[in-house]
Design a protein that fits this description.
By secondary structure, the protein is α+β, with helices and mostly antiparallel strands. It has helices at 2-26, 63-72, 157-167, and strands at 28-39, 49-54, 57-62, 74-76, 82-86, 89-93, 108-111, 121-123, 136-140, 149-156, 169-177.
Length: 178
């Protein structure tokens, strides 16, 4: 019995070693959860307005829009400014901002910084085209982004919201670009 186990080990061990070296050399790992986030546009929401405190001032925005901002992080208001939700309060800016205060752009991803630090370049080859061909940059964080979870910024409005639904999936490969 020991000889049989030894023979199997002698055959399987090199295969596993080659596989692990290939995985390490490629900079790819599996089993990532990919989600998408976007910037909602207040003009695409209906319903009553709600009073909130923004930068110490009372303002009114559509209730459903406010709810969506608390999930997505930022939203474009009817007056063209961007309403953000972070540090448990609302902020008004000229653009939606990432973790460093830079303008949020398509190809930005939010990640757990203990897993992928700010500035890390990655690809996600199993996403639908053209997203599978993009090089993404870790430049954002989110309260629900933990472990092997990446949140891909898809842009503004309902078209971007639809993209977030298409790219959300489990068990994805993520490759780090050096």
């Amino acid at each position: 019995m020991r000889k049989k186990i030894l023979k199997i080990s002698i055959i399987i061990f090199p295969i596993l070693l080659i596989f692990s070296i290939f995985s390490f050399a490629s900079g790819c790992s599996s089993d990532w959860y990919i989600t998408g986030y976007y910037t909602p546009d207040e003009t695409q929401f209906n319903g009553p307005k709600e009073e909130i405190l923004v930068n110490g001032k009372s303002e009114f925005y559509k209730s459903k829009f406010i709810k969506e901002i608390k999930i997505e992080g930022w939203g474009k208001t009817t007056n063209g400014k961007y309403l953000g939700w972070y540090d448990n309060k609302f902020h008004l800016e000229n653009n939606p901002l990432d973790y460093n205060g830079d303008i949020l752009q398509i190809k930005t991803v939010a990640a757990d910084l203990s897993v992928l630090p700010i500035g890390t370049k990655i690809t996600i080859p199993d996403l639908p085209e053209p997203w599978s061909t993009f090089t993404f940059y870790v430049a954002d964080v989110g309260p629900s982004i933990n472990g092997k979870h990446i949140d891909v910024y898809a842009g503004e409005g309902n078209d971007a919201r639809n993209i977030t639904e298409k790219i959300t999936s489990k068990g994805q490969n993520v490759c780090i670009i050096s």
